[in-house]
Design brief:
two-stranded parallel sheet; single chain; 109 residues; rod-shaped; mainly alpha; 5 helices
């Protein structure tokens, strides 16, 4: 019997890796990529579990799912960090270098 490549197995892996790589983009890019990868991994897992002997590429799905989870966690942490910095220093200080320097010195950084 011929084995077929699991649908979206490569896509899940690519999106999971991109989610980790883009974790420093304020969470705007990496978070949706990680969520999409998790949804696609869930669908691929259901297909695989129906007939595991018919499909190859499940290792890509598992690896992509791990990358997606790591990417989501990193993106959430970075997004919380950015919100925290904006709440402490303020958005106006980020646009004015002298105010930014004052804010940094005030908190001892």
């Amino acid at each position: 019997m011929e084995k077929y490549t699991l649908p979206n197995s490569t896509g899940v892996l690519i999106l999971g890796i991109l989610s980790v790589i883009t974790c420093c983009c304020y969470g705007i890019i990496g978070l949706p990529l990680g969520i999409i990868a998790l949804v696609m991994a869930g669908k691929a897992t259901k297909i695989y579990l129906e007939a595991p002997e018919n499909y190859i590429g499940f290792s890509n799905v598992k690896t992509g799912k791990v990358f997606a989870i790591i990417g989501i966690v990193l993106n959430c942490i970075f997004l919380i960090y950015v919100i925290w910095i904006l709440s402490i220093i303020g958005f106006a200080a980020l646009q004015d270098p002298s105010l930014l320097q004052e804010g940094i010195q005030e908190f001892g950084y």
